[in-house]
């Protein structure tokens, strides 16, 4: 039986691997992996509060997610692809063992969904539009971040 990606052209396969590598940076807790796959002017929409632009801007977020969830895993459930565009439905799981958005560790195992759309130029991601289910995560933790 062939894998779902086995029918892809070399260019589409390289683009698929670039997006998968972006998620691996979180799961493997290796922020430097993004240097291989994000364009220098990568646009992340929307930016997290305090997030800087480009690949360097995502690295502190990868570190903070790893600190909050040392066993973090991103599981890709679906990838829909056409040339230079990939849509992803995925799930983040982990155990809340470190502070997250000012919420102290709860020790709770959590799971929340993400939906993202990526544009690519060659094998580099140029733009990511993302939506995470933060509300669902905060319900699982039993608290919400303090209001400013």
How many runs of DSSP E, i.e. beta strands? 5
Low-pLDDT runs: none
Roughly what percent helix?
25-40%
List the helices and strands in order: HHEHEEEEH
Radius of gyration: 16 Å
Which secondary-structure class do the elements indicate?
Answer: alpha+beta
What distance lies between the first and last C-alpha atoms, to the nearest angstrom?
53 Å
Shape descriptor reads globular
Mean pLDDT: 94
Query: Can you list the strand order of the major beta sheet?
Result: 1-5-4-3-2
Strand content: 25-35%
Largest sheet: 5 strands, mixed
Number of helices: 4
Helices and strands in order:
Layout: H1 10-27, H2 34-37, E1 38-45, H3 54-68, E2 73-82, E3 85-95, E4 109-121, E5 124-132, H4 134-141
Parallel strand pairs: 1-5
Antiparallel strand pairs: 2-3, 3-4, 4-5
Structure description:
Helix content is 30%, strand content 34%. The protein is built from 4 helices and 5 strands; from the N terminus they run H-H-E-H-E-E-E-E-H. The chain has a 5-stranded mixed β-sheet. The relative contact order is 0.18. The model has no long low-confidence stretch (mean pLDDT 94).
Please give a quick description of this structure.
The chain is α+β, with helices and mostly antiparallel strands.
Supply the key terms.
148 residues, five-stranded mixed beta sheet, 30% helix, single chain
